[in-house]
Amino acid sequence: MTSEPGSEEPMSQAVMHPPEVVRHDEPHDPPATQGGEVVFSMRELAVSYSGTMAIRDVTFDIAARQITALIGPSGCGKSTLIRCFNRMNDLVVGAEVHGSLTYHGVDLYGSKVDPVEVRRRIGMVFQKPNPFPKSIYDNIAFGSRLMGKRRDLDDIVERALTRAALWDEVKDKLKESAFALSGGQQQRLCIARCIAVEPDVILMDEPCSALDPIATAKIEDLMEEIKSQYTIVIVTHNMQQAARASDMTAFITTDVGEDGARTGRLVEFDETNKIFTQPVDPRTEGYITGRFG
């Protein structure tokens, strides 16, 4: 894969050992997306921590330039799942990924895949804003400098901040500390920092949980504006946000075994409007109507 979104040239030689990947000979057919190029394809995907299964039986596809929401009760494995997409679980001692996960048709956990390159192409915005202890300008330029780019940094910074709907608010104080920004501005700064390195995918793990309604609305508007350029996957507990902002929704719930162990499992994946108005599984209806979770 090249650095351009949607490319399929193999990534460079791995610098970290991938978790074990266990294949299944006859994976289930995935639920349909709304069409378009498939970015991520999962077949019987599962994750375990030190032998304890955290999430299992996840099979669906994520299409390009759509917003896909992952919803479900606390502890069902939503964050574990989204961290599979950029191999963040590699950094957790004892984590193992089972099943199949491909990115533009390439095995994301293949032996020749570089996890660092994966994380450049598949950026992530976390639950709480995490700006670097640097200026606004240096936060945005950080990734480009890390990749050896020294030219056109001013243009890169302006373009990223503009895409993140933040340029007009900060253009006169680029040398000030990023910590001087409000919480909502800091989160948009983190999105701009992610955009600056031209990723293909943006993952968002509860990006609005620490924000007020006004800041949340700005983040949702931003996602809608940039989805024509990026594939976005978002974890959210906010049902209204999922209904407003996403094109596709995956509902994950928790199965409790006889030994009391809790394991996340995909229940339903479909167009967001269908999930919220005509869910197929009664567990989905129970969750979105607030009867449990």
Q: pLDDT average, as an integer? A: 87
How far is it from the N-terminal to the C-terminal residue, by CA?
Answer: 40 Å
- Give the percentage of residues in beta strands: 15-25%
- The portion of residues assigned to helices is 25-40%
Q: Largest beta sheet, briefly?
A: 11 strands, mixed
Q: What is the architecture at the second tier of CATH?
A: 3-Layer(aba) Sandwich
Poorly predicted regions: 1-10, 12-29
Count of beta strands: 11
CA-based gyration radius: 19 Å
Number of helices: 10
| Integer count of domains | 1
Query: How would you spell out the order of helices and strands?
Result: EEEEHEEHEHHHHEHEHEEHH
Helix/strand/pairing category? alpha/beta
**Global shape:** globular
Q: Which CATH C-level class is it?
A: Alpha Beta
CATH superfamily: P-loop containing nucleotide triphosphate hydrolases
CATH topology: Rossmann fold
Question: How would you portray this structure in words?
Answer:
With 293 residues, this protein is of the alpha/beta class. The chain has a single domain (38-288), classed as P-loop containing nucleotide triphosphate hydrolases (Rossmann fold, 3-Layer(aba) Sandwich). Helices cover 30% and strands 24% of the residues. The chain has ten helices and eleven strands. The protein has helices spanning 78-84, 115-121, 136-146, 153-163, 167-170, 183-195, 213-226, 239-245, 272-277, 282-288, and strands spanning 38-49, 52-58, 61-63, 67-71, 95-103, 106-107, 122-125, 201-205, 231-235, 248-256, 262-271. Strands 1, 2, 3, 4, 5, 6, 7, 8, 9, 10 and 11 form an eleven-stranded mixed β-sheet that branches. Helix 6 (183-195) packs parallel to helix 7 (213-226). The radius of gyration is 19 Å and the shape is globular.
